[in-house]
Amino acid sequence: MQSNGYANLIILAGNSHRAMSAEICAYLEIPEARAEVFKFRNDNTFVRILENVRQRDVYILQTLSTPVNDHIMELLIMIDAAKRSSAGRITAVIPYYAYGRSDKKDQPRVPITARLLADLLTTAGANRVLTVDLHAGQIQGFFNIPVDVLTAEKLIVNYFKAKALKDLVVVAPDIGISKTARNVAEQLDAPLAIVEKRRAGNDDKVESLNVIGNVAGHPVLTIDDEIDTGGTLLSAIQAVSKAGATEVYSSATHGVFSDGAVDRLLSVETLKELVVTDSVPSNGVTDDPRLVHLQLAPLMGEAIRRIHDGESVGSLFR
Questions:
Q1: Please, what is the average pLDDT of the chain?
Q2: Does domain 7-150+297-317 bear CATH number 3.40.50.2020?
């Protein structure tokens, strides 16, 4: 690999997704860097990097899954440790960026936590960020450092191309994801439908209103960036089933699956498959074969290689 002004790259991992770190290192054919990351009995986080990082191109992988705040603190401390060890450049590799829904003041006296997190990462010493499918595109603009946003769209499209579902209709569970759903529909040569919905308050209750488009007699594929409690998806499945869809396949980049969401979703008879990436570790959430995890490591490994070598990341998606 070329140096691009920095010594050879090194990948450090917090505790949130060590399996992905190992897979990325295997893709890049480099050894995993060693670091101690643990909590003292008083709940304080301790980090010690066990490698020489002076003037090296350092990538710190930490997905912001549950427990979210612990993983954020680990990441900030690891960045600070690398900065104080004279790392040449520090890239925070965050497959799942938490607090993505707190991207604007949509109620009186509420924070913009996605912006606060961006400020914390920058202040800690990150020189750039690599992430996947942000909940809102504007979050990229919250940073004053370079942010590369990868997308799992191609992974999902290729998976469903291989299934060759006949007369498929792609469905956006809400209007906000319709642009992505339209792109997927074009690549699958399928029509697009949209579920119009209304969210009630802050308690994740969703009331679906109607389906815009024809799904009667067709299998459908729902597309979203994230599945958390599953309220939006359950509402969409009910809406398209009521409108005559024969079966439902659902996909999203981030399978957060809080509060028993997987069990609720897989209990729906018309849901044939639930496809997410491994941006959030599954941690044995279920052994049901209908839950499929697509691997992000090759995509992220290639993006890291290109950043290190000074090549285009955007050309990955052309």
A1: 93
A2: yes
